[in-house]
Design brief:
heterodimer, A: 117 residues, seven-stranded mixed β-sheet, globular, B: mainly beta
């Protein structure tokens, strides 16, 4: 079974340019997460989707960040315009629900390493 | 204060040594996760546990709910175990449950 797929793996852009990241979750996983991870830190949640609905986007800087999951499968995270401080690894993860309704373990993609110059 | 604390921050061991990585949390949880991240790589989920102990190969994870503490043990360590080990907690079950991550511990195993 394929894992969580992310592209691109690496991206280098100049500040003020737009950038987009793509994620394809594990088949059948309704819950999708976007995380930001700075060097030496644990991941920080940006947004969580249940199917196509964003159920937690409280940590997403909405002035420059946007995300979508139109058909409840693939998702795109966009930054426009990018700033120097956005340099980080952007991780996508997906999970399914357990029989009791809780969230099962999350499966992470390889991440996209963004460098803003 | 972070809700999930890990210690030590960096750890160096010699190949073959028994290694213990600790995690403490300050909130009530429904599950505790141990994750592994290699340099430049994605995150791999090692364990998800809510009580007792789990074992997979040379890795053992334990949790003490009363003390809000979990440990990850690596037996017969190998250089390929060198990675960042992240502890994460799911504060509660239900629709709003989400992981709270520790900062991770960087483990280096020398040959």
């Amino acid at each position: 079974e394929a894992g969580v797929v992310q592209s691109p793996r690496y991206k280098i852009i100049e500040k003020k340019q737009p950038v987009a990241f793509w994620c394809n979750p594990i088949s059948g996983h309704n819950t999708l997460y976007w995380y930001l991870q700075n060097l030496g830190q644990g991941p920080e949640l940006l947004i969580r989707y249940e199917n196509e609905e964003a159920v937690d986007d409280s940590q997403l800087p909405k002035d420059r960040f946007s995300a979508e999951r139109l058909k409840g499968v693939d998702s795109t995270l966009k930054i426009q315009p990018a700033e120097l401080g956005d340099s980080a690894v952007y991780l996508c993860a997906s999970s399914s629900r357990t029989h009791s309704g809780g969230l099962d373990t999350q499966y992470f993609g390889p991440g996209t390493r963004l460098t803003v110059l | 204060k972070n809700e999930v604390e890990q210690s030590p921050q960096n750890l160096t061991a010699q190949e073959g040594e028994f290694i213990t990585i600790n995690c403490s949390y300050s909130v009530g949880i429904s599950a505790l996760h141990w994750l592994q991240q290699h340099p430049g790589g994605g995150i791999v989920s090692l364990f998800m546990l809510s009580s007792g102990k789990k074992k997979h190969g040379r890795l053992i994870a334990t949790i003490n709910i009363q003390e809000k503490h979990s440990s990850l043990h690596i037996t017969a360590s190998h250089p390929r175990d060198s990675a960042v080990y992240i502890c994460a907690a799911t504060p509660y079950t239900g629709a709003n449950s989400k992981l709270t991550f520790g900062k991770g511990i960087t483990l280096s195993v020398r040959p």
